[in-house]
């Protein structure tokens, strides 16, 4: 007989899923992030130009309220589509950036919209653009240690 057991007595059984060994997911009390992926169709001849423009953006989005992450993804094969990945704390933060800093950056200095003469904006590198929107429902990171 195992130590600590009394002859003639049986242990009370716990209902399944209860007690210290039971694990339950803690409710998520915060909102998950929003991901925006801008799919840019970029002809091969314009790839270098697009990448240079993004490199020159000099932190245009990083200081925006609610901004969490940015990546420019270059296609390896089979497509001309670049992916511009941004993650935001909320849809509202993304919309605020779109209606403020992003619009100003795309207008260029002086707020002009193109035309002839000095200050003319360069031709867009992308021939098409589609915006995909996602809500983050699960995420993981490398284990520490």
UniProtKB/TrEMBL annotation:
Residues 127-145 have a biased composition (Polar residues). Residues 34-124 form the ABM domain. The keyword Metal-binding does not apply. Residues 15-24 have a biased composition (Low complexity). One of its GO terms (molecular function) is monooxygenase activity. It comes from the Bacteria. InterPro entries: ABM_dom, Dimeric_a/b-barrel, Heme-degrading_MO. Residues 1-24, 101-145 are annotated as: Disordered. PROSITE patterns: ABM. Signal peptide: none annotated. SUPFAM superfamilies: Dimeric alpha+beta barrel. Keywords: Monooxygenase, Oxidoreductase. Pfam families: ABM. This is Antibiotic biosynthesis monooxygenase.
